Amino acid sequence: MIEGKAVPLAMDDVDTDQIIPAEFLKLLSRKGLGRYLFYRWRFDEQGRERGDFILCDERFKGAKILLAGRNFGIGSSRENAVWALVDFGIEAVVAPSFGDIFYGNAVKSFLACIRLPEADVRSLQKKAETGALNLRVDLPAQELTSDDGLRIKFAMEEHVKEKLINREADIDLTLDDVAAISEYEARRPKYLAPHLDRMAPS
Question: How far apart are CA 69 and CA 37, in angstroms?
Answer without folding.
Answer: 17
